[in-house]
Design brief:
The protein has 292 residues and is α+β, with helices and mostly antiparallel strands. It is built from 14 helices and 4 strands. It is 57% helix and 11% strand. Strand 3 and strand 4 form a beta hairpin.
């Protein structure tokens, strides 16, 4: 740990892992995040470690992430905000290059949507530039992998379900607390699709509720849809897609959306869960392929 430079004239209250200090004299330092040489009387220290000093621009970016994670918005809203922050963390050219690398290393990438690929490529690019230690910027990278799963759920399951149920009367299902979010989207596909947790809850209801399978117009439409997919048994098994989505939310998405500081190990675990050799994303692709 490096010594404190110069004389501190003012210490600002910490904001999460960030704390600013004002010095009597301007001090030269290298920002540990962007690597640029800076000189300022106002320096931010990360996690109380004087070897991790931040310039004002990087302080602003990290502070915005902390404010999202520490805010009072719902988990879904925080996840959306972190996903937007992730996209802003990488230039378009960098994302395109990362996508080319991912396509070259994973031939199954050709079966993913453009949106899912963009989230994965951006997450991979950002993760490749971070130190292994827990820090705020790992959270958007983890959220990016979760958003890739959401994108495929929407494209492969929710949009086809909405098309199939478009002529059905979904009024009763929209009032059902367990499937209402999905029913509302199917009744009006122009609205925002349900998030990861809402779809996982819908799937849990489909799997376990005999009453809904017998009475719900939406659930019956969903079962007709999956009947067209030879590999759909994984979607309807308790230990299948529902378990994969629940684990993704509990182990990775929810901690990323809170004040937890994630690290390289967390990202690696999420990556393996989503796009590892037997990742949930690839199993979803196989399970939703139509009969040929």
């Amino acid at each position: 740990m490096q010594p404190v430079p110069s004389t501190i004239t003012k210490t600002y209250p910490p904001r999460g892992p960030l704390q600013q200090f004002r010095f009597a004299d301007s001090t030269a330092f290298d920002c540990f995040r962007c690597g640029q040489a800076k000189e300022s009387k106002l320096i931010t220290v990360y996690q109380g470690n004087w070897s991790k000093r931040l310039c004002n621009a990087c302080y602003g970016r990290l502070l915005s992430l902390y404010q999202i994670k520490a805010g009072t918005a719902s988990e879904d809203e925080r996840a959306e905000a972190l996903a937007s922050a992730l996209i802003a963390m990488a230039a378009d050219d960098d994302v395109r290059h990362a996508e080319k690398l991912f396509r070259a290393s994973e031939e199954r990438a050709e079966r993913l949507s453009a949106e899912a690929l963009r989230f994965i490529a951006t997450a991979e690019y950002v993760a490749g530039r971070l130190e292994a230690d827990p820090q705020l910027e790992w959270s958007p990278a983890v959220i990016g992998l979760c958003k890739a799963v959401e994108a495929e759920l929407v494209g492969r399951m929710l949009k086809p379900l909405a098309a199939l149920a478009s002529r059905e009367n979904l009024a009763a299902d929209r009032q059902d607390k367990d499937i209402g979010r999905v029913a509302a989207y199917c009744a009006d596909p122009a609205r925002k699709p349900p998030e990861l947790g809402a779809f996982a809850h819908f799937l849990q209801t489909v799997i376990h509720s005999t009453r809904r399978r017998e009475s719900s117009v939406l659930v019956q439409a969903f079962l007709r849809l999956t009947a067209n997919w030879p590999g759909s048994q994984w979607l309807l098994q308790p230990e299948g897609l529902h378990r994969a989505l629940t684990a993704l939310a509990v182990k990775f998405r929810n901690p990323a959306a809170h004040t937890d500081e994630l690290g390289q190990q967390d990202y690696a675990g999420c990556r393996d869960h989503v796009i590892g050799s037997d990742g949930a994303l690839w199993r979803l692709v196989v399970a939703t392929e139509p009969r040929r």
